[in-house]
Amino acid sequence: MAFRFVMKSSAAVKTVSPLPFNHIICRTFAGKRVKEEKPEVELPDYNDVVPTSGISRPLSEILKEINKRVPDSLVKLRTESNGFSVKYIPWHIVNRILNLHAPEWSGEVRNITYSADGKSVSVVYRVTLYGTDAEIFRESTGTASLNEAGGYGDPVQKAEGMAFRRACARFGLGLHLYHEELL
C-alpha cells in the first residue's frame, strides 16, 4: 500500500511506500504544521515529486499529442476470417495513451443493440476529452458476431473495444493505420 500526498501549492503528487515508524516529527503541509511519524528507514526527499503539469492543458495540445504516429511496437496484426491481415492498436494500449496524454478523459457505453436476426451485437461508445479551455467528445460504433468463436472476451466486449478504438481514432489516435498506403 502506498500513501499519496497532494501538495496544491506546488501542483505535485508524492507517493511513498509505508515503512515502519518509531517516532513523531512535525512538517509544514499546505501552510499548516502536521505531525508525522518518522520512519526507521529514510524516506525519499519530499522535494523529489512527480509533476502533474500534463493534467490541465488546452485541448489543442492534447490533440496534437494523440495525433502522433503510434510506434510500430504497439501495433498488432490479426488475420480476419476472409484471410486479410489488419493492423490495429489493442484497446488497453489506446487506454494507456489517453491516460498519458489526456489523463482527465472519460468514456462510456451509450448503447448496446442486438440485431433482429440475433447474429450480432453493436455498441456505441463515447470518449470525452477535457482540456483547460474546452471539452469535446467523439462517438463511434463497434459490431461483433454472436456466433464467432475465438479471440478474447464475449461479443459485447469485442464490440465495445472496437467502438472505443474507433471513437479514439476520430480524435486522430492511430488514424495513420487507416491510410498507411497514402503516407
UniProtKB/TrEMBL annotation:
Gene3D superfamilies in alphabetical order: DNA repair protein Rad52/59/22
BP term (GO), one: double-strand break repair via homologous recombination
Domain of life: Eukaryota
Annotated TM spans: none
InterPro entries assigned: RAD52-like (IPR037489), Rad52_fam (IPR041247), Rad52_Rad59_Rad22_sf (IPR042525)
Gene Ontology molecular function, alphabetical: DNA binding
Keywords from the named record: DNA damage, DNA repair
Similarity comment text for this entry: Belongs to the RAD52 family.
Protein name per the record: DNA repair RAD52-like protein 1, mitochondrial
Organism of provenance: Daucus carota subsp. sativus (Carrot)
